[in-house]
Amino acid sequence: MSLWDFLYTTICKGKYLKMNCVDLLLKLISYKTITPNEDGSYKFIEEYLEGFEVVRYDVQEVKNIFLTKKFSDDNIHLCFAGHIDVVPAGDGWSYDAFVPRIENDRIFGRGAQDMKSGVAAFITAVKDAAYFKGRLSILLTSDEEGDAIDGTIKMLQHLKEINLLPQFCIVAEPTCDKIFGDLIKVGRRGSINGKITIKGRQGHAAYPEKSINPVHDIAPILASIAGANLDDGDDYFAPSKLVITDIRAGMEVTNVTPGELKMMFNVRNSTKTDIDKIKTFIENKIGKLDYTLELSQSAKPFVTKTESKLIQVLGKCIEDTCGIKPQYSTAGGTSDARFVAQFGIEVAEFGVINDTIHAPNESTTIDEIEKLYTIFTKVIKNFNNT
């Protein structure tokens, strides 16, 4: 029996004692929540947040949970969202990745940054809230590090069906860069994957006139495609760039010209570029060649305007706590915030520094987790005053 379970069953008599955010983070790290296993953590969270309404919505192996408390009849609903799942520990750890450890004011363990620190901070802040003019809630999934098809998006669809969608949401992913408090993610670029297949006619290298070499056909055009900006960007996004990730043709011999060339690419797109725009761009560049184009969008871009209530309140609370004015960013990969935005919810991402996520000896600092809790507490307190 672990120390946590001993305290729960013997000393606490089935009632969890009040934890601070650091204690809670240590507890959460101890659960081996490798996607899609929540490892019993939801039962603990559900019991810890006694008095909250609980909505569970599981899809196959993925577990999703929504905990909410209505403080008044006012039509304001603020949600904190995140994922309890983590990537496997992998090699290179100095100790057990799922036995939390504190050294030199750093907390070590898988998920310490991504993102059990954020989960611990907002659970503590919501539990401590004495009053809110409206409704507070917490949304957790066990599928963010996996395929992300049965997690947050499915829970949001269910919440829409039962009329519990929030208006505002903070996703506590690790977002800060160099100094805690320096960045808020106000949006994310989308991601469009593409594959171009150019047809030729295989032949002998000694008789190039009798073949159609797709490598030769694409060569004079390639420079105008590779790294091309598809738009000019804007105040929130850098230009959408076509990044070639793979080109292959032939049979790895020197005397046969290839009959086909395949080229793969990715576009991290802003709101100014979509699949239709990419189709038109490719058609204008290689339309005279015999080719096929396959495009798929794995994530759509979104942005929450910086003048929105959510960004203004969160930014002010960060500045008051950290003494610095956060910058606004849409850089980086995808997160579950993209699903939240699809439902018309104002969403922002803010959490601890991102420098050891998915790495051996993943860690965060006590100072960061405590300040994150303070910021979320201030957001809850000040949200009704803006």
TrEMBL record:
Record-linked CDD domains: M20_DapE_proteobac
InterPro entries linked: ArgE/DapE_CS (IPR001261), Bact_exopeptidase_dim_dom (IPR036264), DapE_proteobac (IPR005941), Peptidase_M20 (IPR002933), Peptidase_M20_dimer (IPR011650), Peptidase_M20A (IPR050072)
Cofactor: Zn(2+)
Domain Peptidase M20 dimerisation: 186-289
EC number(s) recorded for this UniProt protein: 3.5.1.18
Molecular-function GO terms, alphabetical: acetylornithine deacetylase activity; metal ion binding; succinyl-diaminopimelate desuccinylase activity
Metal-binding among keywords: yes
Reaction catalyzed: N-succinyl-(2S,6S)-2,6-diaminopimelate + H2O = (2S,6S)-2,6-diaminopimelate + succinate
Family: Belongs to the peptidase M20A family. DapE subfamily.
Listed name of the protein: Succinyl-diaminopimelate desuccinylase
Annotated organism of origin: Sulfurovum sp. enrichment culture clone C5
